[in-house]
């Protein structure tokens, strides 16, 4: 039987909204008639429905998109029964956690049954129990700014934990104690860092203290959930505050230990750049160079490009500090960490390759590269070349304006040379002048390892001398083949 206990929320819980928030909520409901339509279906079936969480928060901030979150006392099977005839599409990916997703017109909708989540000490997945009141649901939300709701279709604003006040103060607090909140779901500690980055909010001191004390609890959360939260943080407009919070609370040491490891010890005898601060600046500068929105590949490479430095640091006899081959070591470390965090294989390859290549340009500093060296640079960058340009430019954080200008001019020159060679030689698809069939015909040999060796010889020839044409390439191939005998 439907639970009607809270079909009509108590209007005494409606906060005395100022004109701006009231207008924001009214505007939300005005431009979203789909919400009232859905609420009527639930009410007619004897259930409550409320817009909740991030949707209410974003409406009050004036940044609501087409993703709408609702909460209800209806159980998931009842939700499915109500939305299937109504929605344009329905999905059940989150139904084990009480969430039914659907699409209606241009709106992406999630409807979640009142619930509470809790981990035991050994579980990597939350256990879900359903509740019967919206108060019970809201108190289990992560932060007060996400614990506000608008009951529909009455349009009653529900804010039992002063979320509106914290929203105005741009502060992240938990509805209950942060210790209880993070015990329920330790991933909320990373979510605090993410919201600090996405929203530009300050995290309340008691929340920071709990994050620091409970950082080890993040270990029970699955790698996939940690990765997804880290991605959301990195894709924020300003990731630095969130990353700094992860490092300062010790959470980064549990999920991305290579980042705090960049805080290398410095002393008066062996001075060198603050690698941690440098990496954050490189990330910020890379973001400034993005063309078409946030680029996770570029941002990960910028953040991780120097993680090989702690393992390769050497104090030289002349007082300098060296980090020889840190790009090679860093690429291997990047691959290992991203694999552990269950990143897709292709993304792991791309980020690791960018880390490996990020120093390649610095051999060009004097502008003396041959055309062959430029071709090899393009070949090695491959489809990542545009990102490699941006990463390399971002990696200049010197305060010496003259040095920075010289590096920028040098890279401008390299890009101009690449553009000229691309126009002349189709560098984007560097290949030998002869293919495998040509090689077998000219050398009168069958398929086998020698064809691969011959192809590699011709490719090196192409990189070294540029396009030769079929006749000249054939002559070079015959000469090479004779030398193999």
From TrEMBL:
Documented EC number(s): 2.7.7.72
InterPro entries linked: Bact_CCA-adding_enz_type3_sf, HD/PDEase_dom, HD_domain, HDIG_dom, NT_sf, PolA_pol_head_dom, PolyA_RNA-bd, tRNA_adenylyltransferase
EC class (word): transferase
Annotated protein name in UniProt: CCA tRNA nucleotidyltransferase
Transcription listed as a keyword: no
Span list, region Disordered: 1-20
Pfam families with a match to the protein in the record: HD (PF01966), PolyA_pol (PF01743), PolyA_pol_RNAbd (PF12627)
The keyword Nucleotidyltransferase is annotated on this UniProt entry: yes
Biased composition annotated in UniProt, kind: Polar residues: 1-11
Residues of the HD/PDEase domain: 271-426
Keywords, in A-Z order: Magnesium, Metal-binding, Nucleotide-binding, Nucleotidyltransferase, Transferase, tRNA processing
GO MF entry, a single one: CCA tRNA nucleotidyltransferase activity
Cofactor(s) required, per the database record: Mg(2+)
